[in-house]
Specification:
- Strands 1, 2, 3, 4, 5, 6, 7, 8, 9 and 10 form a ten-stranded mixed β-sheet that branches.
- The chain contains eleven helices and ten strands.
- The chain has 317 residues and is of the alpha/beta class.
- Strand 1, helix 2 and strand 2 form a beta-alpha-beta unit.
Length: 317
């Protein structure tokens, strides 16, 4: 009888301990690694989103955003892939760029190296020039590119990212050639365009919405005009069939405990319904498109296929 009671109490204790461990996450600060410079689109997404993830994780959760720029985002995401899968190291994850890195170089991760938490943003590309530039429209740009092949420099955040994919599509559609100038993120690339150090820039709408007074935005790569830049025509309106953009989300190392995964996914879903979150994202011109867990992984697989097809037909290195 006493043995039975003792065994029962032990079982209850184990169950209670497991429940307590589950309820206690997070017990310490969470680091979110951003593989790009401060002030770029990915950094802004992370810094705008994380206060709301803290809110919905509860228990005084604290999240620290850490920038680790370099190698087109490879340094940061490699750090995440090689971290302990305990829920305390997360990382931003850009598509198609992160999958492109697995094609154009040797890397320490692949599609199966991560626990997929949530995509947060779907941010269409734009093409811009300095305000004082003589290139004020897509027709101006294509005319100049055809008259002097490879003379026009194009600044962008990295090789093999969504911005680069848009340029590849543009060159193919218009039979033009440009010279690519990659930077360590969109913020320094944008500064270079505004300073006249490169002739043209390719960015996402969130990265230029607040700089329209200093830039000519020639077009946007989505089917309809953006509410963040309603005066900017789509490329399709101008006769160029170009749809392209960047998906930005958050992942963890592969092997994340199921309860931690569920808690984080729940926090992202809750944030996506939060009016203050949506208002904050709108203020930074970030088009919200939250997709969690397996749906996010499926999206990654689809964009990997797109990157692979682009690499095989038009290698960028």
């Amino acid at each position: 009888m006493f043995k039975f009671i003792k065994k029962s109490l032990l079982t209850v204790g184990i169950v209670m301990a497991a429940s307590t461990a589950m309820a206690e996450y997070p017990e310490k600060p969470i680091t979110v690694v951003v593989g790009y410079s401060a002030g770029g689109g990915t950094d802004v997404m992370a810094r705008t989103t994380m206060p709301f993830i803290e809110k919905y994780l509860g228990k005084g959760a604290r999240i620290v955003v850490k920038n680790m720029p370099g190698a087109s985002g490879q340094i940061g995401i490699t750090k995440v892939a090689n971290s302990e899968p305990d829920g305390y190291t997360l990382g931003t994850f850009n598509l198609p760029g992160m999958m492109a890195r697995t094609l154009d170089r040797s890397v320490e991760y692949d599609r199966n190296s991560f626990s997929f938490l949530a995509n947060v943003v779907n941010d269409p590309n734009v093409i811009v020039t300095q305000k004082g530039s003589g290139i004020k429209s897509m027709d101006d740009l294509i005319k100049a590119a055809k008259s002097t092949p490879r003379a026009i420099t194009v600044g962008m955040s990295s090789l093999g990212g969504d911005d680069h994919f848009l340029l590849i599509k543009l060159q193919k559609a218009t039979e033009t050639e440009f010279t690519v100038v990659p930077f360590r993120g969109s913020a320094p690339a944008r500064t270079a365009v505004m300073g006249g150090h490169v002739a043209v820039g390719i960015f996402n709408v969130s990265e230029v919405a607040k700089f329209q007074g200093e830039l000519n935005v020639l077009g946007i790569a989505q089917a309809k005009r953006s509410s963040f830049a309603p005066d900017v025509p789509t490329f399709k309106e101008q006769g160029y069939d170009l749809i392209n953009g960047s998906m930005r989300g958050v992942v963890a190392p592969k092997g994340l405990p199921a309860d931690v995964q569920a808690k984080l996914e729940k926090a992202f879903r809750a944030a996506s319904q939060d009016k203050e979150f949506l208002s904050s994202m709108a203020a930074t011109a970030n088009p919200v498109e939250v997709v969690t867990g397996e749906e996010f992984k499926k999206l990654t697989d689809e964009l990997y296929s797109l990157a692979k097809e682009t690499w095989e037909t038009t290698p960028w290195n």
